[in-house]
Amino acid sequence: MVLVDWVKGVWRSDSIPVARYLSILLLIGLFSAATLELSFRYKNYFTAYLLRSDVRSYFRYGLQDALAYVQAHQSDYDEIWITDVDQPYIYLLFYAKWPPSDVHQNLQVRRAPPAFNEVTAFGKYHFGDLPAVNFNDLVLLYRSQDSDGRTWYQVRGGVIPERGRVLFLDKP
């Protein structure tokens, strides 16, 4: 604000032309610096920022592809387990576009006040860790990878006694 008042004062007064030129140069310099700073920030935001692994994990990079694989093969399995990290049922319902009426009837919730409610199952989908299973016994069926080859989600499947054919989606 002080800078703006100073520039207005220089332009209104009958000061020497040098002061006017200096104020113009100062404004051009400030505008150029701000433009340069913003251009670097925007370039970073639209290029390098998207490639950072921590940013990809915030947006659950690869989960949509892994869930699409699971949904395409769900009829071949008796149970489907999804690791219970950050309420995965929300992503399943969103990407599958499940009708709300079906969700209200079939969503199984564990209520333990004062803690948050926990969704445990929805139809053949179960949320949490698959109990007492050696993951080496399950065959790796699908990996959701980025362009660098990093695996974000993996789908494993197999037969587990007393459970039948099981599909398991988790982060490696």
Secondary structure topology:
Blueprint: H1 2-12, H2 17-46, H3 48-51, H4 53-58, H5 63-73, E1 79-82, H6 88-96, H7 100-106, E2 107-110, E3 118-122, E4 125-127, E5 139-145, E6 151-160, E7 164-170
Parallel strand pairs: 1-4, 1-7
Antiparallel strand pairs: 2-3, 3-4, 5-6, 6-7
Helix pairs in contact: 5-6
Describe the structure.
- The protein has 172 residues and is α/β, with parallel strands linked by helices.
- It folds into two domains: 2-51, no CATH class; 60-170, no CATH class.
- It is built from seven helices and seven strands.
- The chain has helices spanning 2-12, 17-46, 48-51, 53-58, 63-73, 88-96, 100-106; strands at residues 79-82, 107-110, 118-122, 125-127, 139-145, 151-160, 164-170.
- The longest helix is centred in the N-terminal third of the chain and has 30 residues, at 17-46.
- It is elongated and about 95 Å long.
- 16% of the residues are buried.
What's the quick description here?
With 172 residues, the protein is α/β, with parallel strands linked by helices. It is built from 7 helices and 7 strands. The longest helix is centred in the N-terminal third of the chain and has 30 residues, at 17-46.
Observed structural traits:
alpha/beta; 172 residues; 45% helix; seven-stranded mixed β-sheet; single chain
User: What characteristic shape results from the CA principal axes?
Assistant: elongated
The low-pLDDT segments are none
The largest sheet is:
7 strands, mixed
Would you report the number of β strands?
A: 7
Largest sheet strand order: 2-3-4-1-7-6-5
N→C terminal distance:
54 Å
Rounded Rg:
28 Å
Helix % is: 40-55%
